[in-house]
Design brief:
231 residues, Rossmann fold, 2 domains, 3-stranded antiparallel beta sheet, 3-stranded parallel beta sheet, globular
């Protein structure tokens, strides 16, 4: 598995060699074009030539005594990178979240705060361990709401982008309405908590000040809903 080489044409891998420079396997890439205007796009993975080569090699030679070669390599490399003793590769984010909740001791009767704009696994793993999800709507640092009015920061060209506000506001409305139907605990941060300059690094990620503001707000909303424990 260490003797891997490849040839590229126009920046794309076309031939992959596992044994010698004289024996290459030709790879055909599809060039099918889709109408993106009719698709709801998601965030795709970042796949480089290295990932293509490693994936092919794992599929062809990752059997029997080599079955855990890449798993062990990933585990050791990642644990060294973040400075811990162990790391567990999983087949999905769902599995990773499930393991994390079990490791934290989350169980039946516990509550877990999750964002309303996320993947279904974020809520489903909470139910897997018997806990109850608490949905929180999200705001955006690219706009401000004051007394029912929306204030947007202009782009570099001076124009205004209402897309972020329209999307976030729609998701918040749907979330709160759904919570009423299913009798779930939901907190509408998007419309109840106001941010100021310095609360966000960018349009999405909060600074320590912004994170503390969110934490204090959630505590004030939940302290009368969730009974206190000795721990």
């Amino acid at each position: 598995m260490k003797n891997i080489s490849y040839k590229s044409i126009n920046g794309k891998i076309t031939y992959v060699n596992r044994l010698s420079k004289e024996k290459y396997i030709k790879i055909k890439f599809h060039n099918k074009k889709r109408n993106l205007k009719k698709m709801i796009l998601t965030a795709g993975p970042s796949v480089s030539s290295r990932e293509l080569v490693y994936t092919l090699d794992a599929a062809m030679s990752g059997w029997n005594e080599n079955s855990d070669y890449y798993l062990e390599k990933l585990s050791k490399s990642f644990s060294n990178f973040i400075g811990v003793n162990y790391a567990i590769p999983t087949s999905s984010c769902t599995g990773a979240l499930h393991i994390a909740l079990k490791a934290l001791g989350i169980k039946k009767g516990d509550e877990v705060i999750i964002p309303n704009i996320t993947w279904v696994a974020t809520a489903s793993v909470v139910q897997f361990v018997g806990a109850k999800p608490i949905f929180v709507t999200q705001n955006n640092g690219k706009y401000r709401i004051r007394k029912g009015k929306v204030y947007l920061a202009p782009r570099k060209d001076g124009t205004l982008n209402y897309t972020d506000y329209i999307m976030m506001a729609a998701m918040a409305r749907v979330t709160m309405k759904t919570c009423q139907v299913i009798d779930a605990i939901c907190i509408d941060i998007a419309n109840e908590l106001f941010f100021v300059d310095g609360d966000h690094y960018d349009g999405i990620h909060t600074t320590p000040t912004g994170s503390e503001k969110i934490g204090r707000y959630l505590h004030s909303k939940l302290k009368d809903i969730i009974p206190a424990t000795d721990s």
